């Protein structure tokens, strides 16, 4: 399938609405800048949504799940079967993101891209099976060209459904045992970093486990040293859900739909998206800095300032969901505060 769409220019933010929103913020009854990032986020949302009054009442969350061949290298604190087991938990409404999505009134879509312990048909889970798992990147490329394309498409399909439903914000999440190993390897390749600087505990490795994981990533990087662009690095080192997120972020930016990025794995997928298509960057907002070791470095590479730093490291879009109320508050402040003139308050 053609990949041309990945490179097509994204909808630029609207400079007119951005200027109008900035000027509006300056008139609200507060010292200029005193609402900090709540101001800049409202301005960015107005510019992205091309409206005077931004809103994120209608939120769409897609959680992409997939298994990783590199799990065979003993790089996670949890067994691979958990990926499929968590799909059941999502379907039955018991996962953290199930609870958060309900509390937010958000649409939650779960996408099974391929799990070794496949739970089969489940309510509320879209099956877009690519294979039971990616290959172990210590032995061969994680994905074939066709598998990578299928993952990009699965992500873009979710965004198209979100857009068609009238969603005002797209949130991507992931679930996949061993995916911090894949995401760390991909981040190292994209950034020219070494695994010892980026490798973290994932679901809870101890220091010996982290050292082993770092060595596994170093082996993968050596095997795929010839992969010299972001698409090929993603194919060799990434995973189905990481590539789906990359495709989703690109598609969302092309449709002009704002994106709220979640944690470490999703930020690496966002970095890949920006490397493939730099015009994606201005459509991205960043929810939080996860505890995963490499997250801050990847955020810095994207010049991203996340809204929250709560010591979270769950994934499955939970950090982004937690930041949605802040975006909603930023919007209502922007839309409902009185101006100095309206309130009869003196300016500086
Ligand atoms: O989002 C994060 O920053 C994050 C940090 C650490 C772990 N996770 C989640 O934990 C799983 C991967 O951890 P691991 O140790 O199996 O590589 C995967 O399902 C992620 O959703 C997520
Ligand atoms: C239980 C569990 C839930 C998760 N959700 C996202 N990643 C996860 C990893 C584990 C192990």
Kindly describe this structure.
- This protein is globular.
- With 348 residues, the chain is α/β, with parallel strands linked by helices.
- It has one domain (57-328): Rossmann fold.
- The model has no long low-confidence stretch (mean pLDDT 98).
- Strand 5 (259-261), helix 11 and strand 6 (284-286) form a beta-alpha-beta unit.
- The chain has helices spanning 15-27, 37-49, 81-91, 96-104, 145-164, 179-191, 195-198, 207-223, 230-237, 240-255, 264-276, 295-301, 318-336, 340-343, and strands spanning 59-65, 107-112, 125-127, 169-175, 259-261, 284-286.
- The structure holds nicotinate mononucleotide and 5,6-dimethylbenzimidazole.
- Nicotinate mononucleotide (NCN) binds at residues 76-78, 174-181, 202-203, 262-265, 290, 292, 295, 313-316.
Name the structural class: alpha/beta
Q: Can you give the helix content as a percent range? A: 40-55%
Classified by CATH, the class is: Alpha Beta
**Quaternary organisation:** single chain
- The parts where pLDDT drops under 50 for at least 5 residues are none
Classified in CATH, the superfamily is Nicotinate-nucleotide-dimethylbenzimidazole phosphoribosyltransferase (CobT), large domain
Task: Indicate the proportion of strand residues.
Answer: 5-15%
Summed up, the helix count is 14
The gross shape turns out to be globular
CATH architecture tag: 3-Layer(aba) Sandwich
* Bound ligands, each once: nicotinate mononucleotide, 5,6-dimethylbenzimidazole
State the separation between the terminal residues, measured CA to CA.
59 Å
How many individual β-strands? 6
Number of domains: 1
Mean pLDDT: 98
Main sheet strand line-up: 3-2-1-4-5-6
> SSE order in H/E notation?
HHEHHEEHEHHHHHEHEHHH
């Amino acid at each position: 399938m053609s990949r041309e769409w990945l490179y097509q220019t994204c909808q630029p933010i609207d400079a007119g609405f951005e200027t109008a929103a900035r000027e509006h913020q300056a008139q609200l009854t507060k010292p200029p800048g005193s609402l900090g990032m709540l101001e800049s986020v409202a301005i960015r949302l107005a510019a992205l949504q091309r409206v005077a009054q931004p809103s994120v009442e209608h939120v769409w969350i897609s959680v992409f799940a997939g298994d990783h061949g590199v799990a065979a290298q003993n790089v996670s604190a949890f067994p691979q079967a958990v990926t499929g087991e968590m799909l059941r938990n999502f379907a039955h409404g018991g996962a953290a993101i199930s609870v958060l999505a309900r509390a937010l009134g958000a649409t939650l879509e779960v996408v099974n891209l391929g799990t070794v312990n496949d739970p089969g048909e489940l309510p509320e889970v879209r099956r877009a099976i690519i294979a039971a798992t990616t290959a172990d990147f210590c032995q061969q490329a994680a994905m074939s060209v066709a598998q990578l394309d299928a993952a990009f498409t699965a992500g873009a399909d979710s965004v198209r459904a979100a857009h068609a439903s009238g969603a005002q914000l797209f949130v991507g999440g992931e679930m996949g045992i061993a995916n911090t190993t894949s995401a760390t390897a991909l981040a190292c390749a994209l950034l020219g970093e070494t695994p010892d600087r980026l490798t973290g505990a994932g679901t809870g490795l101890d220091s010996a486990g982290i050292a082993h994981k770092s060595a596994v990533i170093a082996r993968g990087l050596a095997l795929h040293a010839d992969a010299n662009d972001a698409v090929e690095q993603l194919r060799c080192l990434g995973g189905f859900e990481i590539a789906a997120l990359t495709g989703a972020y690109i598609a969302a930016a092309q449709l002009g739909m704002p994106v709220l990025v979640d944690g470490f794995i999703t930020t690496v997928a966002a970095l890949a998206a920006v490397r493939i298509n730099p015009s994606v960057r201005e459509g991205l907002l960043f929810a939080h800095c996860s505890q995963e070791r490499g997250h801050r470095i990847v955020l810095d590479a994207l010049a991203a300032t996340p809204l929250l730093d709560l010591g979270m490291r769950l994934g499955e879009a939970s950090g982004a969901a937690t930041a949605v109320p802040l975006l909603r508050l930023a919007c209502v402040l922007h839309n409902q505060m009185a101006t100095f003139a309206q309130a009869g308050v003196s300016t500086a």
